[in-house]
């Protein structure tokens, strides 16, 4: 009897292990932590659910702080120790694809239920490199929403909706700036960081300009782009001192203590503001009169590494993590799955409809394998402009660097 | 030396030599080789390009800026850190009440992790909320807050001050140990002969500490030249390129732009420049010794 019981147990264990394939599979999944939202708890719950739905597959989640994530991934890829799956910043996908580090998922996607219409178009496009799909959108956000301190607006007699146009934004910033009393209209930042670039891009996109033209040449010095850059430069008098070393995080501090009337942040900012005593609202970007505000996409895609021996299991995990009923539980930005995003935003964010519309309209940054160098040139350009260099001259200088890449 | 001794020597030294070779010389030689290849993340198959990366760097305007900044940063930090470190060591060497606690407290900045110290200084330098500007405005020394880290004219000075604050306890510690080894009889004899405190310092104390001072200066030069965290966290090499030094440039090119070959080239140039700096100290030390010998 005892031996029969042991035999039965052994058989059931083996069958569980072989339910997926021949051998138990251990998937290594690396993700980064951008916020302190306790996300890993929810991710672990989702992983448990995935494992129960897929006997034989075990997922080992490694969460790496955001500032270290890129370096750890690069080192792992160079050393041949890449995980099976990881989240990849949208702006890294092209470089990882060109380097041959990640797998082409086009066929896997076409053979499955995963399709473009389930995701925000800009997010889906951010995983496209040379017409092939190298990632599945996991989470998204857009730069930038303009958050307003409603009390300061009311005191100055300004209607927050007036800042939807460039003229309105500038006028409000001017009225709300009172340096003698430590109050500033607008939180401009120009440090050497990607947040500087994405905000700049949204102004350029909203004026019909571009960072790279369709032929890959630099578009920063086109008339539409330069007009947007000149506009940004014209806002400098209404921003706190020290733009060249200021980040979005620094502006958040000033916004939270009431000395800043407007700040640029993605929807990710809302949980912080909800915890504060501020009376706030937001506007989804700005554009010149008669044009539509276009945001810059930010977010992460899920990619499978070429060195992974478990691609089939990894794909199953991606399908699971981007599913409508799971995606909203495992992200700290906005779910990339549109239906999951709608539910998530209605439950967790103010102005869900405005956010959805802005996300739907947002544009990805250039999908270039040398994007990081393009971005560096753009950061240098903004530092030049905020230092007083004429926008056209700074843009020409940046384009010289970009076109030589 | 008998044959068995030779084998014994190799048995003891061998593991250290092997460790040094694997952990130190292999990466260094690898970096040197990499600097002749245009390797980048998106182009992992190395392509031999000879000295073209060196040419590219030399002909770019950035290289001169990085060299100038590295020199200003290293000389500024080393000079001030050792000067302040020595002054504090002299104070702590006096028989004052609460000396033990003072010696422990003085070490605090040095014990703090580099990242924490940098973040602390970032808060202090904040143009709107920082304690430094609050003090300046409060005392009437300035009407508006100064953006210390955002102006090209003040950023380098600001990062040097932060690094000196972090590093001076190290110099204090070394100098204090050396001061306690200065022959007290010589000092007392000089005092009896009527030498002033300043005279005793220059003619008795400093000559006795000479070797320690030289070693400390060389050590702090190497540590400062390669110091990354402070500048990276405070300014990321900005505003524009006002505080870019070799380590921040290497990081930006390597991990910020995935261009490993060019980062390696900067690395090789950085080692060469550091070697020149250290050699300069050795030469200065040698010429000082010769002059004294002749005298």
Please, could you describe this protein's structure?
The complex is a heterodimer of chains A (405) and B (295). Chain A has helices at residues 2-18, 39-53, 66-78, 93-98, 106-110, 121-125, 150-156, 166-175, 194-206, 223-234, 248-256, 270-275, 311-321, 324-327, 338-348, 352-361, 371-386, 391-403, and strands at 25-33, 57-65, 85-89, 128-129, 132-133, 136-143, 145-149, 184-187, 260-265, 280-283, 296-304, 334-335. Chain A is α/β, with parallel strands linked by helices. Chain A folds into 2 domains: 25-139 and 298-361, Periplasmic binding protein-like II (D-Maltodextrin-Binding Protein, domain 2); 143-296 and 367-403, 3-Layer(aba) Sandwich (D-Maltodextrin-Binding Protein, domain 2). In chain A, strands 2-1-3-11-6-12 form a 6-stranded mixed beta sheet. In chain A, strands 8-9-7-10 form a 4-stranded mixed beta sheet, with helices on both faces. In chain A, strands 4-5 form a two-stranded antiparallel ribbon. In chain A, α9 (194-206) crosses α17. The longest helix of chain A has 17 residues, at 2-18. Mean pLDDT of chain A is 91; it is low at 5-21. Chain B is mainly α. Chain B has a single domain (35-294), classed as MetI-like fold (Orthogonal Bundle). Chain B has helices at residues 3-34, 52-59, 61-92, 99-106, 108-111, 114-125, 131-138, 155-179, 184-192, 197-225, 229-234, 246-256, 260-294. In chain B, α8 packs across α10 and α12 packs antiparallel against α13. Chain B is globular, with a radius of gyration of 24 Å. Chain B starts with a helix and ends with a helix. The mean pLDDT of chain B is 90. Chain A binds chain B through residues 70-71, 74, 77-78, 95, 98-100, 179, 182, 191-193, 240-246, 250, 253-254, 257, 259, 369-370, 372-373, 376, 380, 383-384, 387, and chain B through 41-44, 126-129, 144-147, 149-152, 155, 235-240, 252, 255-259.
């Amino acid at each position: 009897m005892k031996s029969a019981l042991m035999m039965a147990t052994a058989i059931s264990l083996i069958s569980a292990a072989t339910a997926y394939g021949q051998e138990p599979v251990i998937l290594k999944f690396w993700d980064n932590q951008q916020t302190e939202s306790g996300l890993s708890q929810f991710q672990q719950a989702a992983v448990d659910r995935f494992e129960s739905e897929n006997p034989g597959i075990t997922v080992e989640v490694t969460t790496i702080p955001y500032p270290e994530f890129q370096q750890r991934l690069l080192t792992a890829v160079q050393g041949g120790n890449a995980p099976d799956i990881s989240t990849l910043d949208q702006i890294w996908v092209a470089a990882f694809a060109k380097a041959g580090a990640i797998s082409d998922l086009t066929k896997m996607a076409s053979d499955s239920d995963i399709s473009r219409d389930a995701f925000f178009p800009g997010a889906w496009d951010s995983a496209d490199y040379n017409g092939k799909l190298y990632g599945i959108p996991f989470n998204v956000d857009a730069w930038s929403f303009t958050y307003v301190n409603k009390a300061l607006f009311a005191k100055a007699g300004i209607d927050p909706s007036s800042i939807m146009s460039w003229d309105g934004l500038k006028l409000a910033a001017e009225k709300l700036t009172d340096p003698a009393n430590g109050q500033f209209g607008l939180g401009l930042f120009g440090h050497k960081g990607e947040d500087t670039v994405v905000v700049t891009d949204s102004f350029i996109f909203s004026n019909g300009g571009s960072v790279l033209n369709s032929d890959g040449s630099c578009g920063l010095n086109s008339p539409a782009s330069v007009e947007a850059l000149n506009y940004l430069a014209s806002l400098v008098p209404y921003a706190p001192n020290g733009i060249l070393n200021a980040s979005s995080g620094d502006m958040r501090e000033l916004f939270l203590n009431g000395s800043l009337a407007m700040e640029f942040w993605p929807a990710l900012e809302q949980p912080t503001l909800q915890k504060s005593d501020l009376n706030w609202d937001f506007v989804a970007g700005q554009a010149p009169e008669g044009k539509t505000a276009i945001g810059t996409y930010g977010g992460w895609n899920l990619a499978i590494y070429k060195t992974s021996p478990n691609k089939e299991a990894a794909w199953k995990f991606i399908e699971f993590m981007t599913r409508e009923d799971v995606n909203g539980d495992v992200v700290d930005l906005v779910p990339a799955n549109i239906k999951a995003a709608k539910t998530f935003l209605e439950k967790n964010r103010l102005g869900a409809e405005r956010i959805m519309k802005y996300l739907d309209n947002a544009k990805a940054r250039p999908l270039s394998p040398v994007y990081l160098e393009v971005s560096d040139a753009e950061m240098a350009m903004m530092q030049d402009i905020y230092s007083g260099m004429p926008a056209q001259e700074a843009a020409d200088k940046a384009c010289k660097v970009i076109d030589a890449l | 030396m008998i044959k068995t001794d030779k084998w014994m020597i190799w048995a003891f030294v061998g593991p250290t030599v092997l460790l040094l070779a694997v952990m130190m010389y292999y990466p260094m030689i690898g970096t040197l080789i990499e600097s002749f290849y245009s390797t980048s993340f998106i182009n992992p198959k190395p392509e031999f390009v000879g000295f073209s990366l060196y040419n590219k760097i030399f002909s770019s305007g950035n290289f001169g800026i990085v060299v100038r900044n590295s020199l200003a940063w290293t000389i500024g930090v080393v000079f001030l850190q050792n000067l302040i470190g020595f002054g504090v060591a002299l104070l702590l060497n006096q028989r004052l009440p609460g000396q033990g606690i003072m010696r422990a407290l003085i070490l605090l900045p040095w014990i703090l992790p580099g990242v924490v110290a940098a973040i602390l200084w970032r808060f202090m330098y904040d143009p709107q909320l920082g304690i430094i500007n609050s003090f300046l405005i409060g005392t009437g020394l300035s009407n508006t807050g100064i953006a210390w880290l955002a102006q090209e004219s003040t950023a380098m000075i600001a990062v040097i001050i932060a690094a000196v604050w972090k590093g001076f306890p190290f110099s204090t510690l070394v100098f204090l140990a050396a001061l306690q080894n200065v022959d007290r009889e010589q000092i007392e004899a000089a005092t009896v002969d009527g030498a002033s405190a300043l005279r005793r310092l220059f003619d008795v104390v400093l000559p006795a500490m000479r070797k320690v001072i030289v070693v400390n200066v060389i050590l702090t030069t190497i540590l400062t030249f390669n110091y990354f965290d402070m500048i990276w966290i405070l300014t990321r090499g900005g505003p524009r390129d006002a505080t870019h030094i070799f380590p921040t440039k290497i990081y930006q090119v390597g991990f910020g732009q995935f261009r490993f070959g060019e980062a390696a080239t900067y690395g090789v140039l950085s080692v060469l420049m550091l070697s020149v700096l250290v050699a300069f100290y050795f030469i200065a030390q040698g010429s000082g010794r010769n002059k004294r010998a002749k005298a």
